[in-house]
Amino acid sequence: MDLSITRKGFTGDNLSWLGSAHGTNAARTITLDLTSGFSEADFYKKGFIPSGVPVTKLSSGLYGLYKESSDTPLAGFILTPQSVPSAPTVRISAPLLDHGRVIESKLPVTLPAKGKTEATHIIFV
């Protein structure tokens, strides 16, 4: 895990999926397992994983990409864009929005229908 302090700017990320500021000041830190479905073709196109990507807690205790076939419920959404690591096996820390308001139509990926019923502290508009 890379814990070094760096500062990077991103262009092209879109935070319009946030329906309000509620919950953004209380995001908690999670560790992403990028081998759980974050493919280069889908998530690394611009050099970063965009904000608004849905994640789930894996049996390992790490967090991975939430998809229709996920056995665990939707945990929330990556709050800010995350720089692509040097290798997909490198785990990265990310802020998790696990309560608040989300505009589903503006998410960077399609949210599986079951995700809306599993996220008890997120209001979808």
Give a structural overview.
Helices cover 8% and strands 26% of the residues. With 125 residues, it is mainly beta. The radius of gyration is 14 Å and the shape is globular. The mean pLDDT is 88.
Compact summary:
This protein is mostly beta strands and 125 residues long.
Helix and strand layout, with pairings?
Blueprint: E1 28-32, H1 40-43, E2 48-49, E3 54-57, E4 63-65, E5 74-78, E6 82-83, E7 92-97, E8 100-102, H2 113-118, E9 122-124
Parallel strand pairs: 8-9
Antiparallel strand pairs: 1-7, 2-6, 3-4, 3-5, 5-7
User: Can you count the beta strands?
Assistant: 9
Q: Which overall shape is indicated by the principal axes computed on the Cα atoms?
A: globular
Beta-strand portion reads 25-35%
Radius of gyration: 14 Å
Strand/helix succession: EHEEEEEEEHE
Which stretches are poorly predicted, pLDDT < 50 over at least 5 residues? none
Which structural class is indicated by helix and strand composition? mainly beta
How much helical structure, as a percent, in the residues?
Answer: under 10%
Mean pLDDT: 88
Q: Report the total helices.
A: 2
* Main sheet specs: 5 strands, antiparallel
Strand arrangement in the largest pleated sheet: 1-7-5-3-4
Distance between the termini: 35 Å
